[in-house]
Each structure stands twice: as structure tokens, then as C-alpha cells.
Write a structure and sequence with these properties.
One of its GO terms (molecular function) is ATPase-coupled polar amino acid-transporter activity. Keywords: Amino-acid transport, ATP-binding, Cell membrane, Membrane, Nucleotide-binding, Transport. This is ABC-type polar-amino-acid transporter. It is an enzyme of class 7 (translocase). It is a single chain. This protein is α/β, with parallel strands linked by helices. It has a single domain, classed as P-loop containing nucleotide triphosphate hydrolases (Rossmann fold), CATH 3.40.50. The protein is about 35% helix and about 20% strand. A six-stranded mixed sheet has the order 6-7-8-3-9-10, with helices on both faces. Strands 2-1-4-5 form a four-stranded antiparallel sheet, with helices on one face. The longest helix is centred in the last third of the chain and has 16 residues.
Length: about 280
């Protein structure tokens, strides 16, 4: 994994990384090298905030193991659509399927175990160590023992190149490192799909490369991913398909070569002329 080098304060306590494959609550080994992703289907969803309609029949699919990048201008509805996929916003119409099952009838807790999400902000508990931030959801939601949760957390930190940061607090980490911890925390739940909402927008430019490299690595390992991004280079390189949204609608949906090299709609052509 091609991660940029980032520096931080040294931890006061050494926590060894896990050297064996972590186990689940039943004692069975868990392989963190590959992901068994699920599929997502957004079907004609609408969304309103009072009288303001922000999504107008949005539809797209993310096949198992596929990376779909969602691009578009600010206010196009792309982040709202993504938040609907995790029930942080409740669509007012349409449906969203996970492996063919409606997510709108699932409990929110179950859905968020199965579909992880990474935000612009890192949402780490500032008074807890990295290891505590990692193990807390594993113990409370997954009901893992302290020992098993620790194994999963250390394995997850190793996956994002932060094994030596387990005893740090968030303030001791760079922004890029904090975002990688947030990604590792979501991945440790073993979700079937991951949603990324402008995961690099809060980072300084020199820290963006490391997070994008990590996301590209996840794609190579088969994670199903829907990614709202303004990083056009990442969308071109890592996505299987790119969805362009404007004014709460999907305007174009196709492979990166088509979207970036042969756009069909005047609106997409105008957007690319501004951002490329």
C-alpha cells in the first residue's frame, strides 16, 4: 500500500501489533485481507426538507466488489443520497436495497453494522486512545469480548499502516492519520459495503494522497464502495463506474472513460470544464 509518511508524537506505551489472524466471537478465524462485499441498489429515491425537494428519483447500483464514485457540483444532492444509503437521512420515496433486501425496513443499528460510513470529519472520541476508539463499537455493537475486540482493532490498524499509533490520542495524530483511524474503525466492523462522503475534503493537500491510496487498496481487496468525491483523478483510476449528479438527479452514469473522455450531457461537459 502506497501511503505517504506522516509524523506524530511518540506514544508512551508500546502495544504490539497482532501477529496471528484475529478470531470472531465464536473463535473462528477472520480474514481481513479480503472482503466479502454486498451489493447496493438505489431505486428512485426522493428526499425533501419541508417544501424543498432535494432528490428527484435518484437511481444507481453498486455491484458486489464494485467501486462507484459520485461526482457533481456542490448542492447537487450527492451527499444526501449517500446519507440515505446509511439511513442518516430518511428518503421520502423509493427504496434502497442491500443484497436485494430493503434497508428501509431494517433497524438502523443492523444497517450500520452492514454498511459502514466515513465522513469528512473524523468523529473520533478525543479523550480516548486510538485503540479505545477502535474497540468501543466492536464491544458495544458486535458484542465481542475485550480480548477479541483488541485483536480485531490491532489487525485493523495494521491494515491502514498505523500499528504503532494504538496508544495515541487523536490530538497526537495528523489529519490524514485520524482519517485512516476512522476508516479502520469502520472496516473493523466487517461491513458488506462502505460509504465515503468526501473523505479527503477536510485534509491538507499533502495528506490527501495517503487516504486515497488506502481507499484504492480497499478497492483492490474487493470492498463494495460508494464514494462521494471531488478527487477526479481518484474517480478515474479507482472507480468501476462514475455517477454524475446535478440538481438532485442522476444526469449520467457510466465507466470512467465514458464520463471523463466522452461526456454526453451539456451539464457534465460544463462541470468537467470547470474541475479538470
Amino acid at each position: 500500500m502506497s501511503l505517504i509518511q506522516e509524523t506524530g508524537m511518540k506514544a508512551t506505551t508500546n502495544v504490539p501489533s497482532s501477529t496471528s489472524m484475529p478470531i470472531d466471537a465464536s473463535g473462528d478465524p477472520v480474514n481481513l485481507e479480503r472482503f466479502d462485499g454486498g451489493s447496493l441498489a438505489v431505486q428512485e429515491i426522493t428526499m425533501s426538507f419541508g417544501p424543498l425537494k432535494v432528490l428527484h428519483g435518484v437511481s444507481f447500483e453498486v455491484a458486489q466488489g464494485e467501486v462507484v464514485c459520485i461526482i457533481g457540483p456542490s448542492g447537487s444532492g450527492k451527499s444526501t443520497a449517500l446519507r440515505c444509503m446509511n439511513r442518516l437521512e430518511q428518503p421520502t420515496g423509493g427504496d434502497i436495497l442491500l443484497d436485494g433486501e430493503s434497508t428501509l425496513t431494517m433497524s438502523a443499528d443492523l444497517l450500520r453494522q452492514r454498511v459502514g460510513m466515513v465522513f469528512q470529519q473524523f468523529n473520533l472520541f478525543p479523550h480516548r486512545t486510538v485503540l479505545d476508539n477502535m474497540t468501543l463499537p466492536l464491544r458495544r455493537v458486535k458484542k465481542l469480548s475485550k480480548e477479541v475486540a483488541r485483536e480485531w482493532a490491532l489487525a485493523g490498524l495494521a491494515q491502514v499502516g498505523l500499528s504503532d499509533k494504538a496508544t495515541y490520542r487523536p490530538v497526537q495524530l495528523s489529519g490524514g492519520q485520524q482519517q485512516r483511524v476512522a476508516i479502520a474503525r469502520a472496516l473493523a466492523m466487517r461491513p458488506e459495503a462502505m460509504l465515503f462522503d468526501e473523505a479527503t475534503s477536510a485534509l491538507d493537500p499533502e495528506l490527501v494522497k495517503g487516504v486515497l491510496s488506502l481507499m484504492a487498496d480497499l478497492a483492490q481487496r474487493g470492498m463494495t464502495m460508494a464514494v462521494v468525491t471531488h478527487e477526479m483523478g481518484f474517480a478515474r483510476r479507482a472507480a468501476h463506474r462514475v455517477v454524475f449528479m446535478d440538481q438532485g438527479q442522476v444526469v449520467e452514469d457510466g465507466p470512467p472513460d465514458q464520463i471523463f473522455d466522452d461526456p454526453q450531457s451539456p451539464r457534465l461537459k460544463a462541470f468537467l470544464a470547470e474541475v479538470l
